[in-house]
Amino acid sequence: MPVTCVYGMQWGDEGKGRIVDLLAAESDFVVRYQGGANAGHTVIVGEEKYVLHLLPSGAIQPATINVIGNGVVVDPWVLIEEIDELAGRGISLDGRLLISDRAHVVLPHHKTMDQALEALRGADALGTTSRGIGPAYGDKFRRAGMRVADLLKPHRYEDLLQANTGAWNAILDKAGLDPIDVASVIEETRAVGERLRPYAADVTTILLEAWKAGRPILAEGAQGFGLDVDHGSYPFVTSSTTGPAGVSAGTGLPPRALDRVVGIVKAYTTRVGAGPFPTKDTGPAGVHLAKAGHEFGATTGRPRDCGWFDAVLARRAAFTQGATSVCLMKLDCLSGMDEIKLCTAYELDGVRVDAPPAWAGDWERCEPVYESFAGWTEDIGGARRFEDLPATAQTYVRRIQEILETPVEVISVGAERERFIPLVEGIPVGV
Ligand code: IMP
C-alpha cells in the first residue's frame, strides 16, 4: 500500500487517531503534515488511553517510524513532554521519530499572542486552542518564522529572533504591553533545541526514498475540513490546509504520490470553538450525543457542541478533497435515539443551498433541511459485519454512503481498537 492520507471531514474530532492507529499497523511511516499541538488524537489500546498532540499516532505502534513534516508548527516543549511521557509508559521513540528541519517552531510569545489576539477580538473571538498556532503560521507566511533548523544553530538564532520579533514588539509597544524578552526566549529554547537535535532531519529526502521504494506511508491529517483555512468557515478556522491538499506542501512528497484518501466522519457532528454550526442541537438529542460520545476536547477539555450529520459540509469535504473512501465513526453513540436526522441541504433566506456559503454570517443563518430516520435501541458494540446492525442503522448508513458518493470502508461501533466493522469495498448496494 503506497501513500494514504487520512483527514477529517467535519470540524475536527472525528476519530482520526483511531483509524490512523489501525492503518499504522500496515505502514512503515506515519507523517503529520500540518497543524500543531492544537490537535488531540486519542488512541485506546486495551486499558491504556493515549492522547497525542504533536506525535503522529503511529507512535503507539512498536515498529512505525513517525515523521513530523515541514508543514507542522512544532511546540518543542509539548513534543518533549510527549516523548518523555511515552518513554515513562514503556514506549521508546529512539530511532523512530524524525522532525523536519524545515518545520516552524511555536515559541512562548506565539502562545501569548494567540491569547492577546483572542482578547482583542472580544465577542468575535475564534475560540482558539491557545496553542500559538495562528501567530506561528502568521510568522511563517510573513517570512519571519523560526524553524527547527534555526534552533539547531544557536550562534545565528539570537540575531534572527531579534529581527523576527521586531514587528511583534512594535505592536506590543503600541498596546502598552511588555515586549518579548528575546534573551529569555533564547535561554528557554537552548535546552529544548538540544533535546530535538537527534530527531531533526531532511525528512523530505527520507520520505521520497521510501515512496520510490514502494514503502507504505500514512499521512495523518489534524483538525478537519470545516476548519481548513481555505475551505472552512473562515475566519472560524485553523491556520493550515487540513486535507490531502496539504500533504505535498507539508511533506515534500509530490501530489501524484497520494493514491488513497480516507475521509473520517462521525455519524453526527460536533464543533468546539466559535463559528457556524447549522445542525447544532441544543435539546435532548444534543445532550444525548455529548454524553454518549464523551464530547470533550482532547486538547482543551472544552465541551463540544453536538448536532446532526451535516451532509452539506461532508459532501463538500468528500468532493473537493477526492476521498476514495469514508470511515463512519461512533455509530454506536446514536443507539437509543427515537429519531435520527440527517441534513441534506440548507435553506438561506428561503433559497435552497447545497454548498457552504462563503460568509460565516450566512452559514450561521442557514436552516438545515432534514431527512428523518427511525432510530434503534440495540447496543451495536458487538457488530462486526454490516448485517449485524439493526435494519434502521443499515438504512441510515446506506443513505450517508449514497449522499457522499463514496464507499464507506469502516464503521466504528465503540472506542476500543477491535470495535469496528470493516467493509473495504463499501456497503454493497441493495444489502
Ligand atoms: P487554533 O487552531 O488553535 O488556532 O483554533 C482555531 C479553531 O480550530 C478553534 O475553533 C479551535 O477550537 C479549532 N480547533 C483547532 N484544533 C482542533 C482540533 O484538533 N479539534 C477540534 N477543533 C480544533
**Quaternary assembly:** single chain
Number of helices: 13
CATH class group of the largest domain: Alpha Beta
Q: Which percent bin holds the helix content?
A: 25-40%
- What is the count of structural domains? 3
Q: Average pLDDT value? A: 93
For the record, the CATH architecture of the largest domain stands as 3-Layer(aba) Sandwich
Strand percentage, roughly?
A: 15-25%
Largest sheet features: 10 strands, mixed
**Integer-rounded radius of gyration:** 22 Å
Distance between the termini: 28 Å
Kindly name the structural category: alpha/beta
**Count the strands?**
20
CATH superfamily of the largest domain: Adenylosuccinate Synthetase, subunit A, domain 1
Query: Ligands bound here?
Result: inosinic acid
Main sheet: strand order:
9-7-5-2-10-1-11-15-19-20
- The shape is globular
Write the layout of secondary structure elements.
Elements: E1 3-8, H1 16-24, E2 29-32, E3 41-45, E4 48-52, E5 65-68, E6 73-74, H2 76-88, E7 97-100, E8 104-105, H3 108-121, H4 133-141, H5 148-151, H6 154-174, H7 182-196, E9 200-201, H8 203-212, E10 217-220, H9 245-251, E11 258-266, E12 269-271, H10 284-292, E13 305-307, E14 309-310, H11 311-321, E15 325-329, E16 339-348, E17 351-353, H12 360-365, E18 367-374, H13 391-404, E19 408-412, E20 420-422
Parallel strand pairs: 1-10, 1-11, 2-5, 2-10, 5-7, 6-8, 7-9, 11-15, 14-16, 15-19
Antiparallel strand pairs: 3-4, 12-13, 16-17, 16-18, 19-20
Inosinic acid is lined by residues 11-13, 38-40, 126-129, 131, 133-134, 222-223, 227, 236, 238-239, 272-273.
Q: How would you describe this structure to a colleague?
A:
By secondary structure, the protein is of the alpha/beta class. The protein has three domains: 3-100 and 200-261, Adenylosuccinate Synthetase, Chain A, domain 1 (3-Layer(aba) Sandwich), CATH 3.40.440; 104-196, Adenylosuccinate Synthetase, subunit A, domain 2 (Orthogonal Bundle), CATH 1.10.300.10; 265-422, Adenylosuccinate Synthetase, subunit A, domain 3 (Adenylosuccinate Synthetase, Chain A, domain 3), CATH 3.90.170.10. It has helices at 16-24, 76-88, 108-121, 133-141, 148-151, 154-174, 182-196, 203-212, 245-251, 284-292, 311-321, 360-365, 391-404; strands at 3-8, 29-32, 41-45, 48-52, 65-68, 73-74, 97-100, 104-105, 200-201, 217-220, 258-266, 269-271, 305-307, 309-310, 325-329, 339-348, 351-353, 367-374, 408-412, 420-422. The strands form five sheets. It has a ten-stranded mixed β-sheet, with helices on both faces. Strands 14, 16, 17 and 18 form a four-stranded mixed β-sheet that branches. It has a two-stranded antiparallel ribbon with strand order 3-4. Helix 3 packs across helix 4 and helix 6 crosses helix 7 (182-196). The longest helix has 21 residues, at 154-174. Bound molecules: inosinic acid. Residues 11-13, 38-40, 126-129, 131, 133-134, 222-223, 227, 236, 238-239, 272-273 line the site of inosinic acid (IMP).
